[in-house]
């Protein structure tokens, strides 16, 4: 079993992204820049027996050849590199969820054949409600449909999680999404327990192996609430097994939601609107190709024709670097993976679509299938002392017409010469945030540089 590696310290996640992360020009790397196996063992503080060393060396050298092949491709926008997975056997690499183990939204809607029982949406009372049609909702902004050129919610994100020995990406992605939404709604930082989601979503089975869906995870939070990681730590990362649900049985929930929204699938505009106006969105992706080796840049090498939706992550924004558009994604493989725990995935205005390799007849769109299954929580609230009384909060920065997020749209901004002001464009459309002064002040204190006033 691989030893855990101490995560690298993250630099401040401000809106000014370090230049090393912004560059999207073709990347190249030579074999001289990659460490030898002995140097790799020292670099990542590995510890092996003499009998195990030859096997690890062979695994490392095999991975190195693949990394060099990736980096030698002309015009590639990303760089492959070594990390703590490089000398791992396939079964030791990050565990993906099992596609087809749980009914997806398309199967529940009858769009894809499934021999699995139907699963409904959860209402706030905890009762399953029949689902006649696929519940796909895209935020509507009325006449004000101008989206910002870039969105970055990393300042609202919690610490990068690490699934380690438990294939619980389907639980980690909703937990990380909830952390951001709790902070945006209540200004309270909570390290949401991914163990609670892992244990309490399904009544049986080892969910580290059988996996789950984003919708079922959010439905369980509607029903049971969520605990903080301090009172409900992620022990499955070490054991590889889920456990008995402790929510309501010794562990009290600290926050909850009243529902969740399934953003219209395979629609890049709908996903951009959701992340720009609401906040981070949990999404499914195909991580079967090259993710293990990702070190930086804009990933553009997923198989566009045959996808396997085997991983769940959090979409925290989007942007553009050197003319290349990208989605900004928070992964759950630790902060020493990728760009400080994040990955940028190529974004197209007209996405390429491919056939799903597991759900026959289904179509997945976007690089790595990122447009296929976006979901975000609604009605975020704190639960005091584990009681049933809900303290509802609306996301700070909502405009007068309930349209979009003040921070994402740049309706409030701080300029040294003008102080805190409402964006004139927002005033024109009648959408200026009523609390823009507070938002501006918060932004200035956090050193988060907002969009330029226009």
Considering the chains and any ligands shown, give keywords for the structure.
seven-stranded mixed β-sheet, cysteine-type peptidase activity, three-stranded antiparallel β-sheet, 19 strands, disordered C terminus, alpha+beta, disordered N terminus, Cathepsin B, Chain A, Somatomedin_B_dom, single chain
The gist of it:
By secondary structure, the chain is an alpha+beta fold. The protein folds into two domains: 95-395, Cysteine proteinases (Cathepsin B, Chain A), CATH 3.90.70; 398-445, no CATH class.
How would you explain this protein's 3D organization?
This protein is of the alpha+beta class. The protein has 2 domains: 95-395, Cathepsin B, Chain A; 398-445, no CATH class. The protein contains 13 helices and 19 strands. The chain has helices at residues 19-22, 37-43, 53-71, 105-108, 169-186, 194-200, 207-210, 214-224, 236-239, 268-277, 406-409, 424-428, 436-445, and strands spanning 78-80, 121-122, 128-129, 151-152, 255-256, 259-262, 281-285, 294-299, 306-307, 311-321, 324-330, 342-346, 353-356, 363-365, 375-378, 381-383, 390-392, 412-415, 419-422. The strands form 6 sheets. Strands 1, 4, 7, 8, 10, 11 and 12 form a 7-stranded mixed beta sheet that branches. A 3-stranded antiparallel beta sheet has the order 5-16-17. Helix 5 (169-186) crosses helix 6 (194-200). The longest helix has 19 residues, at 53-71.
């Amino acid at each position: 079993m691989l030893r855990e590696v101490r995560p690298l310290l993250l630099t401040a996640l401000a809106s000014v992204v370090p230049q090393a992360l912004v560059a999207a020009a073709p990347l190249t790397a030579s074999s001289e820049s990659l460490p030898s196996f002995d140097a790799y063992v020292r670099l990542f503080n590995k510890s092996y027996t003499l009998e195990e060393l030859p096997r690890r060396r062979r695994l490392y050298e095999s991975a190195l050849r693949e990394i060099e092949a990736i980096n030698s491709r002309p015009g590639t926008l990303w760089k492959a590199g070594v990390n703590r997975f490089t000398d791992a056997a396939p079964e030791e690499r990050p565990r993906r969820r099992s596609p087809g183990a749980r009914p997806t939204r398309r199967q529940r809607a009858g769009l894809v054949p499934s021999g699995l029982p139907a699963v409904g949406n959860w209402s706030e009372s905890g009762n399953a409600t029949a689902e006649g049609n696929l519940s796909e909702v895209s935020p509507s902004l009325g006449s004000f449909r101008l989206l910002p050129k870039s969105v970055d919610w990393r300042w609202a994100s919690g610490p990068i999680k690490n699934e380690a020995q438990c294939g619980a990406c389907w639980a980690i992605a909703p937990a990380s999404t909830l952390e951001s939404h709790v902070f945006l709604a209540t200004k309270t930082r909570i390290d949401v327990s991914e163990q609670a989601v892992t244990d309490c979503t399904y009544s049986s089975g080892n969910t580290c192996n059988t996996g789950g869906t984003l919708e079922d995870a959010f439905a369980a939070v509607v029903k049971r609430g969520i605990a903080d990681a301090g009172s409900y730590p992620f022990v499955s990362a070490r054991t590889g097994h889920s456990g008995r649900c402790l929510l309501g049985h010794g562990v009290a929930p600290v926050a909850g939601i009243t529902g969740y929204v399934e953003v219209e699938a395979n629609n890049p505009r709908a996903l951009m609107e959701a992340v720009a106006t609401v906040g981070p969105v949990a999404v499914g992706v195909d991580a079967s190709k090259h993710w293990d080796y990702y070190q930086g840049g804009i990933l553009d090498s997923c198989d566009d024709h045959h996808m396997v939706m085997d991983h769940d992550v959090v979409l925290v924004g989007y942007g553009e670097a050197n003319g290349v558009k990208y989605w900004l994604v928070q992964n759950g493989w630790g902060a020493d993976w990728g760009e400080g725990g994040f990955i940028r995935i190529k974004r197209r205005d007209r996405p390429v679509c491919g056939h799903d390799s597991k759900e026959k007849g289904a179509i997945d769109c976007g690089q790595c299938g990122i447009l296929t299954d976006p979901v975000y929580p609604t009605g975020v609230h704190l639960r005091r002392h584990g009681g049933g009384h809900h303290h509802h909060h609306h996301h700070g920065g909502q405009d007068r017409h309930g349209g979009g997020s003040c921070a994402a749209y740049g309706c409030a901004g701080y300029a040294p010469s003008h102080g805190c002001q409402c964006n004139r464009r927002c005033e024109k459309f009648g959408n200026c945030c009523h609390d823009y002064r507070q938002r501006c002040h918060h932004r200035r204190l956090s050193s988060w540089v907002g969009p330029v006033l226009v």
